[in-house]
Amino acid sequence: MEGFIGQCKFSINDIKNHDNLIVFAVVITLLGIIFALGMGNVSAAPGDTIYVTGNSTLGNDDWNGESATYQSGIIGPKYSIKNATGTVNTNGQIYIAHEQYKGINNTQITIDKNMTINGESQTDTIINGTGTNWIFHINPGIYVTINNLTLTNGTATNGGAIYNSGGVNVNVNNITFTDNTAVNGYGGAIYYDGNILTVTDCTFTSNRAGFGGCIYNRGSMTVDGSTFTDNTAFGVGGAIGNDGGTVTVNNSTFTSNSAIYNGGAISNYGTVTVTDSTFTTNSANSGGGSIFNNGNTSTLTVNNSTFTSNSANSGGGAINNFYGTLNVSFCRIIGNTPYDIYSSGGSCDVDYNWWGTNYVGSNPVTAERVVGTTVSKWLVLTTTSDPNTINTGETSNITADLLHDQDGVYQNPIDRHVPNGIVVNFASDALGTINPLTGTMINGEASTIFTAGLNPGISTTTSTVDTETVNTDVTINENVPPVVTSTSPVNNALNVVVNKVIQITFDRNIQLGTNPWIELKTSSSGTAVPYTTNIVGNVLSITPNSLLAVGTSYSVILHSNSVINLVGIGLAAPYTTRFTTETPPVVTSTSPVNNAFNVALNKVIQITFDKAIQLGTNPWIELKTSNSGTIVPYTTNIIGNVLSITPNSLLNAGTKYTVILHSNSITDMQGNGLNTPYTTIFTTTLPPVVTSTSPMNNEVNVAVNKVIQINFSKAIQLGTNSWIELKNQYGQIKPYTTSINGNTLNITANAAFARGTTYTVILHSNSVTSTGGAGLTTPYTTKFTTTTT
């Protein structure tokens, strides 16, 4: 046999020499038999079931192995696997407990009789060759089943974990093979040259060999439900190397396997059939990133499988056929480089596959996805709606399928179909919704449900698979009248702004009917209000031609058929909604209150309303004396619902003032103004009056440490720049300090008064004021004479 690398040929004998290998295998097998016969502890226990535990305190090779736990005497589990395989009866069962088994008594195990070996679990029952030992050799003519183990770090010239030459039936179930090697030989994990090898639900990771990184096969092999990841061949066949045998692969996954030469996942020199399997990111330095089919006696058949992102330096990134027979159908083949499929001679049929696009106006050969053969039929993405005409609110079944060729011919999935699990993304336009948005193909198709909205039209839905998007239309008819869903303002709303645009929203798009009759009128008198209408989608807007009246109730009536849906079905009965416009702002309080007395001369007048306000256009606000009508200049400020009026100077004491807010001088935020003027009146505070003094005026014999007290008619404060004099009869000023307690002024001399001396106290105008700012209008004088003793 010869393989293809670039533009060169090489002989498979460069990487294998069967005659020498077989001789070597026979020698190794004989040595294993001699070693096994030489073990002093192997007993010929008559048990059909043997138990092994790798715990030295719980197992012993001197025990008979007939119990999973120690009972008495010699009844208890074996300690080593090699002893157990030598002890068990032909066709017997071996049960290996959770443990990691290493060393010479747990590796280099020769199986020379029919048996079944069972691990307690695939993950925790581990036989470890430690990179120095092979694990199992199966002699010719033997039936062996191995279940639920991890076989790791086995190393040999051929078959690092399992070597079989001439076995009748070997079954491997639920086994994990990791880091096993036959670097310069065949089958990093398994070497098989027997009758029937069955591999079921196994995992192969990081195994390495010259030919067949995981498995080298020269017999009849079936692989089912297994995964192959990161395995390597230094020659060909990163996962499986088939050398003249027959291989069937079902429902298995090959990921990131590689070969230095050909066949990153599988190299075939015999017959290989692959079904329902997935090949992703496998690679080869030469041809066949996933599979290399070599020689005119080789046949490769692949159905219902997926090849994505596989690569080779030359030839087919997914499959390379070199003078063999190749049949590939109903597969998903996408994104493999440099080509998806490359064929050099032989027979090649790659019709009825999905290439990720419909190739409208092209084909896989023209697009350089396939080289060396023709493609007359390929699968295309088709999308249908059923039914394709529905009413608003109804549903249609949207189906995307890969069951038609480019000529529209249906391919019955009962016969064959693309792999299950291909993802489909669905979408729709605004006329409806899709649920679910994502589906996976089963038997070549996936479905979703389109639900029509409330508006008629032709809705376009899309289905996308890989790089292809296909549309299908659903016609939506309408057979129900429009229904009002909301109004703005809501029915019976109060305080509606006078410039309100009335909006009525329906459950579907609308239009005005023929000769529409829509009324906007006052509810009490029925006075019609002129308006204009506008419709956007499902919203009717009614705009009065002028501002509405304040504090007025209005009715809107849509008479039958005044509004219709887009196919002409109108309102079945009149629809009425009512609202009342807002009232003008109302004064709720004033500061000072109306008719207040004793108002401070520096008072900021505040008028509070029941809502936020603003100054009207050309506002007329008066602040004046009530008797003479003298205008008082002022400034205004508004915060929220409070109007503040600040006189430019102090008000006059004891004076009545009037504030008038004329009509529309104040409005709410929508422009509704005061209907009538608002007036409030207040009187400012009077100046304080002296009611008594201590000492009294002209009092004699006053103590020299006397605190002078002057009592007023009301609470007082010192005026601005107050001028108070305390002096003797010679006009000499007496220093002092002052304090005020309510309506009492206290004058305290800084030092004792002189004896027998007359003192005068003068409170000049405005030196003392009321708390409202009204000051003494004329000076006030009082005198006293101190004691002589």
From TrEMBL:
It comes from the Archaea. GO terms for cellular component: extracellular region. It is found in: Cell envelope; Cell outer membrane; Secreted. Its main location: other. Residues 479-581, 582-684, 687-786 form the SbsA Ig-like domain. Keywords: Cell outer membrane, Membrane, Secreted, Signal, Transmembrane, Transmembrane helix. Pfam families: Big_5, Chlam_PMP. The keyword Signal applies. InterPro entries: Pectin_lyas_fold, Pectin_lyase_fold/virulence, POMP_repeat, SbsA_Ig. This is Ig-like domain-containing protein. It comes from Methanobacterium spitsbergense.
